[in-house]
């Protein structure tokens, strides 16, 4: 099947079948990454100790920030490419992809220089204790030096209808990452440097696959020329504006992790940081399929919105919200029933297993709720409504998550920290659904007027 026919299926195939196909492949990709994340934590915790796992966790805001840059250009570029293909504007699609490369390379190089120069104060700011800081510095230095490899182009590949290749861009690098992690930590005893180096090598494979797809692979919907790399400021601005909510989401998530780590350092010390490193990785890994559903629905939304097929747009977001909520309930049930078993997958330390059960149970209540705000924000991004998406992501962090976290920790100490995520997600869920309902009512009115005689 050639490229154009794959793209056209986004506007003709049954929504349920299409969403299942797109989401299952993106979810498979992300699950492989989640398995890597969990495996990486296991190797650090069991192969070294819980302080090493905490050191890598301290650097996680850096990874989130790098991912935020990649996701900004990926999500913003994918939205433009989806709509351009829906409108049969292949030249605009080509220029969009080329300009996303320019944006990413510029920012990645700047981050590499900044991180290499200021790694020690960065680690201190992120909340490392004296015991955890050496591990965090060793891990973080390599992560910063490898920033140029942190690409985020799988979303743009999916926008071209190439879900299979997009899936491979996750599975192959992450599989290699797992092997490298085992080799460097367990076999060669390279410590946290081995874990960081494995991460960078896996990212490099993904970057190479991106370059191959856009510049050497045949049978694509558009071709990128050298002239496409001429900066197009209108495209750059639109990519950044549309992708900015994703960046804000990542940076905001980094802020929450930084604040959480600092609160844990003050209230619970090394053991609390170790618990958070394990439990937060489990929580993130178990929620991965919700991100897969979100990524799978976005090309469908963008393409059909570009073709003004609003009935398909509404059906897509309805199916996505329902699926995310049901999956979240399943995860919540597992965490409530067998928390010790889940934690024991990543740590053999009795203290971590004992203290982590309450933390995981409290976090699990956020699972059915968290997918709702994520889907709604992604919906607004996919149709080019950056303001609404930004309000949910940035407003959710600044006005909801951080205040709830600070208040809960001051009132209930460690218990408040673990429970804050669920409380804030409940508030965001209500706000997001109200915003979605309001916009869909406006869209229905516009659609009615457009078809009125």
Number of strands: 0
Largest sheet: none
Helical residue percent?
Answer: over 70%
Summed over residues and divided by their number, the pLDDT gives a mean of 80
Strand content: under 5%
- Helix/strand-derived class? mainly alpha
Number of domains: 1
The parts where pLDDT drops under 50 for at least 5 residues are none
Rough shape?
globular
Rg from Cα: 21 Å
N→C terminal distance = 40 Å
Tally of contiguous helical segments:
18
Order of helix and strand elements from N to C terminus = HHHHHHHHHHHHHHHHHH
Write the layout of secondary structure elements.
Blueprint lengths: L2 H10 L2 H33 L2 H9 L1 H27 L3 H28 L1 H7 L7 H13 L8 H6 L3 H25 L3 H25 L17 H35 L1 H18 L1 H19 L3 H28 L1 H6 L5 H15 L2 H16 L3 H66 L2
Helix pairs in contact: 2-3, 2-9, 2-12, 2-13, 3-7, 3-12, 4-5, 4-11, 4-13, 5-7, 6-7, 7-10, 9-10, 11-12, 11-18, 12-16, 13-14, 13-17, 14-17, 16-18, 17-18
């Amino acid at each position: 099947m050639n490229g154009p026919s794959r793209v056209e299926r986004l506007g003709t195939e049954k929504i349920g079948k299409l969403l299942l196909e797109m989401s299952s492949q993106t979810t498979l990709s992300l699950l492989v990454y989640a398995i890597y994340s969990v495996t990486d934590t296991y190797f650090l915790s069991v192969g070294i100790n819980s302080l090493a796992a905490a050191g890598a966790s301290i650097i996680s805001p850096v990874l989130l920030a790098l991912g935020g840059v990649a996701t900004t250009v990926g999500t913003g570029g994918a939205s433009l490419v989806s709509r351009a293909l829906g409108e049969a504007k292949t030249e605009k699609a080509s220029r969009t992809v080329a300009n996303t490369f320019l944006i990413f390379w510029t920012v990645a190089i700047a981050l590499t220089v900044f991180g290499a120069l200021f790694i020690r104060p960065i680690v201190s700011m992120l909340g490392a204790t004296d015991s955890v800081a050496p591990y965090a510095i060793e891990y973080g230095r390599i992560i910063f030096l490898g920033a140029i490899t942190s690409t985020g182009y799988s979303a743009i590949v999916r926008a071209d209808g190439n879900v299979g290749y997009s899936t491979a861009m996750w599975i192959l690098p992450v599989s290699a990452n797992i092997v490298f992690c085992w080799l460097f930590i367990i076999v060669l005893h390279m410590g946290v440097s081995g874990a960081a180096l494995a991460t960078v090598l896996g990212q490099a494979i993904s970057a190479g696959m991106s370059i191959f797809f856009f510049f050497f692979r045949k049978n694509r919907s558009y071709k990128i020329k050298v002239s496409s790399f001429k900066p197009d400021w209108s495209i750059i601005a639109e990519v950044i504006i549309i992708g900015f909510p994703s960046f804000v989401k990542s940076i905001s998530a980094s802020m929450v992790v930084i604040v959480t780590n600092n609160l844990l350092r003050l209230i619970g010390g090394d053991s609390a940081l170790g618990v958070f490193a394990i439990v937060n990785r489990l929580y993130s890994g178990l929620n991965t399929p919700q991100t897969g559903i979100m990524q799978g629905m976005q090309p469908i939304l963008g393409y059909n919105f570009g073709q003004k097929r609003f009935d398909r747009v509404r059906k897509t977001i309805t199916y996505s919200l329902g699926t995310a909520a049901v999956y979240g309930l399943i995860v919540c049930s597992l965490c409530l029933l067998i928390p010790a078993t889940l934690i024991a997958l990543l740590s053999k330390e009795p203290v971590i297993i004992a203290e982590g059960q309450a933390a995981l149970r409290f976090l699990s209540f956020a699972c059915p709720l968290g997918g709702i705000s994520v889907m709604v924000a992604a919906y607004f991004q996919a149709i080019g409504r950056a303001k609404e998406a930004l309000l949910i992501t940035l407003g959710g962090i600044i006005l909801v998550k951080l205040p709830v976290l600070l208040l809960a920790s001051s009132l209930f100490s460690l218990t408040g920290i673990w429970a804050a995520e669920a409380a804030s997600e409940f508030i965001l869920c209500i706000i997001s659904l109200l915003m979605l309902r309001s916009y869909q009512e406006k869209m229905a009115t516009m659609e009615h007027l457009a078809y009125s005689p």
